[in-house]
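Can anyone check this?
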Amino acid sequence: MNIWGIILIVVLVMSGIMIAFGLYFSVAGPKKINFVMGYRTPMSMKNLDTWKFGNIYAGKMMWHTGVALLIGSLIALFVVIGSNAAIVRNVGIIIIIIHAIMIIGTVILTEIALRKNFDHQGNYR
């Protein structure tokens, strides 16, 4: 398999995981606060209200971001199909970096939303 195919698989897996977990968190999500599955930050784990809000908010952001990244990544990959390996590799690295930035951005925006809607103790504002 050539580098283009490998990067395509990485993009499909990364975006697919974001979409799948995003849909799960925003629709069903973990019902109880736990340390294994869910959007787990100190703020989101204050109480059940912050837990539900954090998981639903992060889930919606994750699946929207996953879809946007999937579409954008596929477009970028198909633009460089047939290009030399160095160009494909560089585009792949950029795509992976953008995925990482968007995942971090999801966490940051979810934490901002939690702090806008809840006080430091986890009570609704």
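Reply from J.R.: I decoded it. The chain has three helices and no strands.
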